[in-house]
Structure formats: C-alpha cells, structure tokens
Amino acid sequence: MEALLQQIENYKKEINAYEAANAEAVETFRIKYLGTKGLVKTVMGEMKNVPNEQKKQFGLVLNEFKLFTEEKFASLQAQTINDKQETINNFDWSLPGDSFAVGTRHPLMIVRNEIVSIFKRLGFAVAEGPEIEDDWHNFGAMNLPEDHPARDMQDTFYINQNPAWLLRTHTSSVQARVMEKQKPPIRVICPGRVYRNETISARAHCFFHQVEGLYIDENVSFADLKQTLYFFVQEMFGKEVKVRFRPSYFPFTEPSAEMDISCLICGGDGCNVCKHTGWVEILGSGMVHPKVLENFNIDSNKYTGFAFGMGIERVCQLKYRINDLRLYSQNDVRFLKQFTSAL
User: Fold this and answer.
1) Total of domains in the chain
2) The pTM is what?
3) I want to staple 293 with a disulfide (CB 3.0 to 4.6 A). Which of 146, 268, 271, 300 is the partner?
4) What binding partners and quaternary form does the record give (predicted)?
5) Which 3 state secondary structure label does DSSP give 248?
C-alpha cells in the first residue's frame, strides 16, 4: 500500500512537470495518462489488490489522482487555445495569401467549345447521341452499303452481332437520330467521341473526337456550305488563312469535297506537317445525298442540305502546334499545364 502511494506521488510530480508546446503534445498527454490504456486506468486497476479495510481510503486517493490529472489536462488545453488565439491576434492579415494551383479545361474541350461557339453564332444547335449505336443509325441510314470499308471488322469495334451493336465510328449517327425525330428546317452540330480500330501512333488513335454539322432546308446550296465553312475557318484560325476545296467521295453526300487550309506551321511554304504541299486537310463536306433524306421521309425534291465533319484533334493540333495525338490521353500534367491560361 505504501509503495503504491509513493508511486502515485511520483506520477503527480511527472504530470505536474509536463509541458505542451502545441495541440499534438496535449493529445499525447491525454493518451498517455487519461486514455483507455493510460496511466490513470492502470493505477485504478490496482484497487483489486488493496485489502478490503483500506479500499475506502485508497479510493479517495485514486479519485484525487484522477481529478489532478484531468485538471492538468484542462490546463494544457486552455494554454494551447490561448497561444493559438494570441498567434491569430498577432497575425498580419494584410499579407498575401498562399498560392494554389489553378486547373484548366483539357485542350480538346477548349477547342470543342470554341467550335460550338462559332457555329452557335450561325444558328446551329448542339445535338448529342449514344456512343454505342445500332447498325442502322451508324451505317444504313447514312447510305453506307454493307461492303463499305468502315463496316469491316478491322475498322469498327463491334459489341454484338445479330443484331449488330457497335461503338460509333462517326457522329453522323447523331444526325440520323435528329432527322428521325425532327423535320426541316434542321440546323445542328454534333460533337462527340468516336471509335475506330486503328493502330495507336503519333498520328492516329483508336478513339478521337468529331464535330459534324447538318443543315437542311429549302434552297440550301453548295454556296451556303462554302460560306459557312469560310466563316468558321476565319473565326478559328484568323482572317489571313487561305481555303481550298477538293472533290472527294462520301456515301452520304453528293457532291462531296475535302476542305484544306493553308498550313499554319510554315505559312504555306511547305513543311513536314503539310507534307511540303503548303496545305492541311481539316474536314470533309458535301450536299446531303437524296437517299439519306428519303431514309427519314424528307422530300428530297423540296429540301436540300449540306453536311460536314471534322476531327477536333486535327484542329487542336493546328491551333496549338501539338505533334503527337497520344498526348491528349496520357494525362501528363506537364502537357496539360500549358493550357492553364486558355480557360
């Protein structure tokens, strides 16, 4: 009994001498002395070894020891709060705040939003559709015969056969869904991600992003198509950029044309990007094929229209001089930080 009382006195001296410089030290005190496995619990556990005739006297000693420890803990807490308040009161609130990293949109989203903004000024609405498509909306409705290369298993990711479900190869499927639900006049752009089974390299990827446009109304001509695209190019790349159209072929348009712009890298003098031609292809376009209109019960004798489609990656590459398509999907922070100012 005497030895235990002496031990308690020693503990009191230890507790009384304890000093805490911060909240962490106060918490350390609580755990060491008042915690579930702390010193106070251990000492009070000695009650079972005290003779019955001394339990009352020893209980008073234990309670006094517990209260002493709790008061010391409360004192340490109050001291820490006062120190913290004094620090706050003495703080110079006129100092500049801590800097923090500013996020940014992905470069593809920056370009996508800019393209959408340009065409919205021309009255185009935005239409979106599913990335998993059926055969009809992706191919059949767009006048793509069954033996067209885009239907080949080497080019298209098929999810199911009979019925055929696939990852869309172009956002023309969105145009199909718009024509299915809406009658002319129709004026929409269709941005979105598409998929093709291609070898991943600096110039190609198994997925990429497109923006396609569709305008159907009475008396729509190829001249309307050209002027629309002229406006887009000048707004996106500047007034000094030159444009040319080349005859081409697409199953869903007739006549069809590829559109090139003068190379922004070399100014039309010739470089590796434009393959020393001075021109870079940015989109395909043409007048909507009458059969496509008829597939959706649109009178091709009354209505005409034009359509166009471009890869957002290609436009982004020209705008920001990006030489590797893989950079878009590698999530390299060093690459993405370059676009912080382009919010």
Assistant:
1) 2
2) 0.69
3) 300
4) Tetramer of two alpha and two beta subunits.
5) strand
